[in-house]
Predict the structure.
Amino acid sequence: MSEKIILDVDTGSDDAVAIMTAILSPDIDLVAICTVAGNKDVEKTTENTLRVVETLGADVPVYKGVARPLVKELTPRVPATHRSNTVVDGRIVNVHEDYLDLPPATIKVQDTPAAAFYVDYLRGAPEPVTLVPVGPLTNLALALLMDASIVRNIKRIVIMGGGREVANATPAAEFNVWADAEAAAWVLQSGADILWVPLDATHAAYLTKDDCERLRAINTLESNFAADLVEQRIVVHDARQPLSVRFSAAVHDALAVCAVIDESVLRDVRCVHMDIGLSDYAEGQTIVDPRHEPGPINCSFAFDGDPVRFADMLCEIFTRA
Ligand code: RIB
Ligand code: CA
């Protein structure tokens, strides 16, 4: 029985691998994709999402989401660590290019904005659905603020975001949560069953150049494109955010989708109490309570990930293309 999911993306490179994984997996019924500003502005993340959907010939509606975080940009905040360009062999390499190297989309987004789609769909859903946000959580937070009762039709929220011992946007925060910390806080307190797939897991479940060769051996448009994206990420990771193994990359968002398919791709998943930092140097921090007597349990958090299982799952799924 395939799992009904709604993806929420800020398509970028790892989002694109996640979308392809969801479309190709027989264990996923991709109901819809919502887009949000994050890696790039929402016009670009939406165009990139449409390019992937159209290239794969998938019949999946795309709903354009919000262009701005809830309140973050209204007040001066501690900025994310500014990162200069990554230059390798004399050329600039970005973990996310403005546009994916796919034909410009000719398909269009739906008329309904993403937050309104969430409310409409979840109010009338015949069965609870799993939400998989892998970008800033603004769309979902807005929907929950519009109608908190939609939580009854949310089976689970599997969030790519956060970090306990690992950060990227600031010393305390992971990008998706940092980009709209208030939105993450609203989602966390929604009462939904939440599983976090944080940087602790995504950095542990790294993909290597050998895994890229395995994808290339499948030799389909999708598998070769996924290999291109992962190799692009390996160059930047190795130069700017090296993982435990040289020449490897985290492909964060695809791990969240794989976790929906088979949670054993995550390791050390614990029920925890979490708060979201909202100010100063803690803004966007997923504060996991380490105490022997923590606060009330409000989510699950994966402290580790399995790189072998992750690579095997992707190769198996992309073989089906
Ligand atoms: O911190 C990693 C997350 O930020 C990923 O979802 C990546 O696509 C970016 O959105
Ligand atoms: Ca993302």
Summary: The chain has one domain: 3-320. DSSP finds eleven helices and 14 strands in the chain. Residues 221-240 form the longest helix (20 residues). The longest strand covers residues 28-35.
